[in-house]
């Protein structure tokens, strides 16, 4: 029962302090943004712009993953590490960082178009928000449509019950994004299959040699791993992989 004493004294203090708390008046304050009253139309417009900017920043990771070349690059890098059997080498942070820099290199022409045609005119107050948004989405949509297969695009057009547009660029963005992701995953898995083949051959050769020597208790992975790393280094694997990934987006 000793643990009830602190609780009892706490309740007693709250009961005695409650009448005195009513006599305390809290200071009133109002919030303003940018020196303008939020209740005014101009202040409300500034607040909406800030909220819109924060919303875009919160959606930036999703845009990076779903609407750029990041998906194909990071999936291929994951397949490469799994095919080599190096466990956590290279680590996830290094793979993500390399994929981000390669994504920036691939998407740099698209980002330059967005900056020139949409962002800079909007910051200079030359075009309104809706025109800036339309111009900003157009280069990104053109990039996705370039790497989206017609079969995947037709699939989501049928699922969304959208009529077939006259041109590919008139396809709704909500239909283009999932079709683009499926196309990118298919392409990444095809590249991953090609990466697995030489390393799989090494594993099979090493396993056959060990079985012929009667060394069945020795894991073949321990013996084949140095040979796979040696093969990858001799053929300059990183150069080949990065070159193949970069040229696949041209």
Could you write a compact summary of the structure shown?
This protein has 250 residues and is mostly helical.
Assembly classification: single chain
- Rg for CA atoms: 29 Å
Unreliable parts: 1-44
Number of strands: 2
Q: Which class of secondary structure composition applies to the elements? A: mainly alpha
The share of residues in helices is: over 70%
Largest sheet descriptor: 2 strands, antiparallel
Q: Reading side by side through the largest sheet, how are the strands ordered?
A: 1-2
Describe the structure in your own words.
A two-stranded antiparallel ribbon has the order 1-2. It is elongated, with a radius of gyration of 29 Å. A hairpin with a 2-residue loop joins strand 1 and strand 2. 74% of the residues lie in helices and 2% in strands. The longest helix is centred in the C-terminal third of the chain and has 40 residues. It is mostly helical.
Q: What order do the helices and strands come in, and which of them pair?
A:
Elements: H1 4-22, E1 32-33, E2 36-37, H2 41-66, H3 70-84, H4 92-123, H5 129-146, H6 150-159, H7 173-212, H8 220-234, H9 237-247
Antiparallel strand pairs: 1-2
Considering the chains and any ligands shown, give keywords for the structure.
250 residues, mainly alpha, 74% helix
